[in-house]
């Protein structure tokens, strides 16, 4: 079976384009997961899987802009795979119309593992937890990504890289002392804005972009501290109107510092008035080429 969560929108969820910000959707997914396993679970026994987990990977495809309105948006959640120590959840954020059709704003998939936070280690799923997850299991769901591209690769060799000092805020940390998985999307956004701003010349007209997809692999927990982490980014792919920025969050400035997470974000140049993608012009391509 699938679970449907009625998710309220907040005015603060909107970005400069008056759409729900790409980071905020990950909050919606987290709320929907908790609602499925705790608030409205058809059977008990999966409560620890709502918050007592760490995210191993997120795959997110943004399909249509969602604007503010007083009515909630719907989030459908279900399970696509249950293994010994991980489970995979799928999500669809949508509006249901009277004729039975849907406007889908986002599709996503998350790989999660139960975690013993007191001992800082993952654990296996219990028999009861596997039974609870089995209620929501739909193994026929097609994957978002092909098997050979389901993990973010290390930063590509060659090309210039741009670095961003990442300062963790106290409010970024969850009840278990780790930075919440949603915040990594915010960190990628902050580093991406800094990245793109370096490509602008004084007097340039704004170049508007929207996020088409984001993949994040969580490798080690990011913790609160005064010393910054380092986000290093390169352009992995450049298309006609899109580009993919590959990023690594490292433990510090040393090039051999441990990688905490990897992310790939695909953005599309966007015409605000027409509401359509537009190609990068020759000047943009000349500035992007050294970073490719």
UniProtKB/TrEMBL annotation:
InterPro entries in the record: 4-hydroxybenzoyl-CoA_TE, HotDog_dom_sf
Classification via Gene3D superfamilies: Hotdog Thioesterase (3.10.129.10)
Keywords: Hydrolase
UniProt-listed Pfam families: 4HBT_2
Molecular function per GO: hydrolase activity
Hydrolase recorded as keyword: yes
Known EC number: 3.1.2.-
PANTHER family in the cross-refs: 4-HYDROXYBENZOYL-COA THIOESTERASE FAMILY MEMBER, LONG-CHAIN ACYL-COA THIOESTERASE FADM
Protein name: Acyl-CoA thioester hydrolase
């Amino acid at each position: 079976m699938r679970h449907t969560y009625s998710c309220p929108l907040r005015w603060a969820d909107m970005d400069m384009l008056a759409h729900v910000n790409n980071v905020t959707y990950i909050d919606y997914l987290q709320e929907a997961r908790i609602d499925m396993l705790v608030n409205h679970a058809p059977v008990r026994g999966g409560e620890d899987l709502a918050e007592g987990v760490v995210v191993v990977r997120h795959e997110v495809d943004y399909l249509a802009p969602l604007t503010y309105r007083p009515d909630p948006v719907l989030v459908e959640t279900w399970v696509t795979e249950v293994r010994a120590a991980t489970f995979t959840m799928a999500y669809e954020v949508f509006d249901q119309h009277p004729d039975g059709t849907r406007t889908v704003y986002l599709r996503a998939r998350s790989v999660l593992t139960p975690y013993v936070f007191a001992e800082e280690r993952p654990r296996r799923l219990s028999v009861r937890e596997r039974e609870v997850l089995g209620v929501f299991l739909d193994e026929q769901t097609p994957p978002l990504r092909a098997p050979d591209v389901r993990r973010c690769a290390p930063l590509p060799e060659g090309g210039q890289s741009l670095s961003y000092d990442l300062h963790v805020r106290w409010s970024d940390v969850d009840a278990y002392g780790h930075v919440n998985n949603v915040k990594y999307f915010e960190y990628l956004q902050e580093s991406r804005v800094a990245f793109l701003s370096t490509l602008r010349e004084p007097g340039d007209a704004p170049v508007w972009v929207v996020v088409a997809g984001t993949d994040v692999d969580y490798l080690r927990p990011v913790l609160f501290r005064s010393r910054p982490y380092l986000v290093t980014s390169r352009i992995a792919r450049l298309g006609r109107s899109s580009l993919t920025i590959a990023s690594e969050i490292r433990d510090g400035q040393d090039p051999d510092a441990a990688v905490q997470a990897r992310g790939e974000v695909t953005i599309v140049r966007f015409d605000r008035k027409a509401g359509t993608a537009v190609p990068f012009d020759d000047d943009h391509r000349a500035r992007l080429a050294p970073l490719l």
